[in-house]
Structures are given as C-alpha cells and as structure tokens.
Amino acid sequence: MTKIVASVLEKNNLPGAIFTSFCGGTEIGQAIALDIRIPLVSFTGSTRAGLMVQQQVSARFGKCLLELSGNNAIIVMDDADIQLAVRSVLFAAVGTAGQRCTTCRRLILHENIYQTFLDQLVEVYKQVRIGDPLEKGTLLGPLHTPASKENFLKGIQTIKSQGGKILFGGSAIESEGNFVQPTIVEITPSAPVVKEELFGPVLYVMKFQSLKEAIEINNSVPQGLSSSIFTKRPDIIFKWLGPHGSDCGIVNVNIPTNGAEIGGAFGGEKATGGGREAGSDSWKQYMRRATCTINYGSELPLAQGINFG
C-alpha cells in the first residue's frame, strides 16, 4: 500500500515519503505520541488507549484528534416504518460483523411495537449467511482475531450474569476462522455491560414508553458517536436533532447509525473523543489559526505624553 501511494505522489512531483506506513505494536504509537516534532496526533482506537495518547501528547503541548469507541443506538418510535427500520437495524448491527465504530449496539423500541419488531428482526437474523465475506451472498464474516472471538464469549457470559436474555445467537461457531453467531439480547438499559462497547455482532434490545425516556437511554452511555431515530413525525425529529435530543456527534433520522457518514464531519462526543474527520471540518483539524494585523501607514498610535522628536 505504501509503495502504491508513493508512486502516485511521485508522479505528481511530490515526495513519496509524505505517506509512510509502519506495522508494529504500542511502541510505535508511544514514539509518535511523545515526539515533539509531531504537532498533531490523530488516533483511532479504544477509549482506554485514546486517553493515554491524549495525556502523553498534551503533556508536551501537542494537539490530539481522537476517534474512539462508539456505543450507538437506534430508537424506533411507534409511528415508524417498521420494514425500513428492521432492514436498517440488520445492516447496522450485523454488517462487518459488528466491528465498526458506527455499528448499532443498542436498539430502543417503543412498547407499542416492541414484540412485532422483535419477531420480524429475529426472522431476518435467521436468514443471515455466515462465511467468507468475499463470497456473494455472505452477510456476516469472521471476527478479526482469535482474541476477538474470546472477548465475544466472555461478553456473552457477562451479559447472562447481568440478567440479559439471549433471544438469538450467543455462541461461537465451531469451524476454521473466528466466526460467531449474530446475537440479539434483551436487557435493561441500566446493566453495566450495556455501557461498554463489545466489538462484535451483539445487539442489546430495550423498551421505552416516551420519547423523553428513549433519549435518556440513548444518552446514558459514556460514548457519543452515532445515533438514529425512526419516526414520521416532524416534532419528534426536531426534538431529536435539538439541544434536548441526542448528545452524539452523528444524529440520523430514518437511516441507520452507519453507512451515511462518508463525506460528513465524522466524529463523536464524550468518551468518543470529540474529534472530527472528513467533510467540512477535516481541514480545520490540521491547520494552525493565526490572527494577522497589518499596518499599511507610517504612523502608529502610542501612549499619550511621549515625544519621539
């Protein structure tokens, strides 16, 4: 990849070394974070690692651009287009095996459509084809590493210990590769595990009665990356988009939490880091602000009572 990018740069009369890729562990990240020659460090990863990077960079008065964990929710109101919402939840929760910062991890359903929605969602989960993601028709590929698979299994045990009910999936698949079942969990919003990001195809489902309650559930986690609501009512939409609505950096209506972020000012609030990449804000992050005043004359107002001759 480095050689390909370098060749493009050189063909355009730019040094190939503008882009450099390193492969390694934490020692590379620490070296970058501590190097005073690097005025800005852009980091994408977990909240825990991002906090360490921020502390190290800030200690030398450098600047940080952080894109950290997401714990994204989709709210479905009782007036929503159910079929549209079911398709969106499936795409957002199962796509890329739940290994996306904008993956939907929490599904917040109005009590009037709760069971109807769940029944339809379970039926489409049964149709998910698991296997090689390069093969046509495969929706769910493997987790990234054996450690990810182990974390999935540990997460399921934690979910059960905190009162979560497995409605679908919940197991690893005994085969070559790090494959697990797409999983739906019925759980209370107050369960500690719901506040954390389990990086896999696990969807927490919970019930609400009022819009106020739904927004409170959406905002109740430390992370604040992406959020969505499904409704046809303008008053709900504007409440959701306003200061008393979602506290996330990405606030969607009638689309999932992922898929539409390309081209926008991507980033989140709270423990997601507050950074913004891409879109209209991307260039601002990498620029230095300077206030400039130019005197075009030959005189300068000075303190009263001074005679310069």
TrEMBL record:
Under SUPFAM superfamilies, the record lists: ALDH-like (SSF53720)
Q: What is its EC number?
A: 1.2.1.3
Q: Which reaction does it catalyse?
A: an aldehyde + NAD(+) + H2O = a carboxylate + NADH + 2 H(+)
Establish whether keyword NAD is in the entry: yes
Instruction: Give the first-level EC class, as a single word.
Output: oxidoreductase
**Positions annotated as active site in the UniProt record:** E67
Q: Which PROSITE patterns match?
A: ALDEHYDE_DEHYDR_GLU
Chain ranges of the Aldehyde dehydrogenase domain? 4-289
Ordered alphabetically, the record's keywords are: NAD, Oxidoreductase
Q: Which Pfam families match?
A: Aldedh (PF00171)
Q: Does the keyword NAD apply?
A: yes
User: Superkingdom of this entry's organism?
Assistant: Eukaryota
Protein family membership: Belongs to the aldehyde dehydrogenase family.
According to the record's subunit comment, the protein's assembly and interactions are:
Homotetramer.
PANTHER family (alphabetical):
ALPHA-AMINOADIPIC SEMIALDEHYDE DEHYDROGENASE
Q: What is this protein called?
A: aldehyde dehydrogenase (NAD(+))
User: Which source organism?
Assistant: Zea mays (Maize)
